[in-house]
Design a protein that fits this description.
AhpD-like
Amino acid sequence: MPFLAQNKEMQNFMESLLRDHNRYLPIVEFLDNVIKNAEELDWEDCERIGFELGQQNGSAFCAGIRTGMISALEVRNERQSERSLEPILAFAAKLNLNSADVEESDIQALRDAGWSDQTAEDVIGLVAALKVYSVLANGLGFNALPADVFAEMGKATVQMDGYTSMFTSFLSQPA
C-alpha cells in the first residue's frame, strides 16, 4: 500500500510516476537511452540484469516488471550472445550494493571475460537508472502486481519499442 497521501488511491508504481510525469519522464528516458545504446548487451540482457538488481534491492515491483519484460523479449528475440552474463551480473550487484567498493580490478574482470570498457559504462548507467526505480518503488510503498499484469506491461512496452513511448502513451490517454 502506498505510503504518501498523494498516492493512496493508486494501484501501482506507474500511476505514481505518471502523476508527476514532468519529474519522472527524464528517468524513463535515461533508462531507455542506456538500454537502446548499449554496445554489447541486448534489451533482454539489460532486463535480466534489472531482475537481479530488483531482487537484490527487495523491490517486488521492479523484479516483477523485469520478469514481464524478459518474458515478452524471449518471445521476440533469439539470443544473440552466448557470452556469459555472470561477470556482468557480479559487477552490477557489487556496484548496486555500494558503488564506492568498485575497483579497477572489477573492470579488469569484465575485460578478461571479453567485455569492452563501453559495456562496463553501459552497466554502470543501467545500474544507476534501475537503482532510482527501486528506491522510488520501495520508498513510495509500492509492491508487486499480479504476474499477468506485468506480462501485459512487458508485451506492450516491447510492442511500443521502449519505456519512453509506453510512458508517453499513457499521458495522451484521457483520465
